[in-house]
Please model this.
Amino acid sequence: MDSNMTDLFESIKNAAPVMQKVFPFDCMMGMADRERFIFYLPGEKLRHESPVGKAIIKGDGMWETMHYRQTFSAIIPKDVWGVTFKSIQTPLYGLDGEVIGAFGFGYSLENQEILQDAASTIAASSQQLTASSLHLAENAKLLQHKMDALRQSGDGMVGSLKKSDQVLVFIKEIATQSNLLGFNALLEAARAGQYGRGFSVVADEMRKLSVNSFSAVKEAQEILEGIQMGMVGHDGEIRKVDEISMVQQSATQDITNAIVSLSKLAEDIKILADKV
Model:
């Protein structure tokens, strides 16, 4: 064997362990002269039976890279040697420019597969979260509309209660007038003596009606006041729920934005894994 060839082969053999240590992925290396394998450096997981001494077979990677004087690469699936890896073969040239052998390099794609799986998982999770987030946002908007309608209804009820209070004031005034008229009628009936007895009965009934009206008005006012107090509390709770709904909408938007960023990250990871 030519001394230049021997020097080149020895230099590669000496450099191979250093290259393996600095390379970030598990890798193996091999080298052949024109006829047979002369060197093999297995990786940690990426390893197989040593080919050293075995003849180069027409059609395999080393033969093709020497025969066609080109660098070839291929992805070797996991079911071949238990680890998915990328195989690269390149020809080695002597000082005269002739092919004197070939160098083979293989590195594990296990990390790439992990990245791709992670990217796929993130992407799938992001899609599910996006759908859930959009559904949550729609529910938040629907809740907001319902709360607006409920608040408007509450405002209408408060207005009706105020009108009812005005009606009670009017009834109270009538009762006051009726009581006064009944009292005056009793005075006149007393002056008329026996001729005013019938009128006296009517006047007495008017005063009773007035007293009952006062009592009914008082009870109605107490009920209306209780309803008004309840409506005030009800309105306060509606406003609290309304505020919570607004916060929920804002939080949902933040979650959606985060999911979009996560999806972009998953895509970047996939692109990075494909480039490894």
In short: The chain has a mean pLDDT of 78. Strands lie at 27-33, 37-41, 72-76, 85-93, 99-108. The chain has two domains: 3-108, 114-275. The two ends are 37 Å apart (CA to CA).
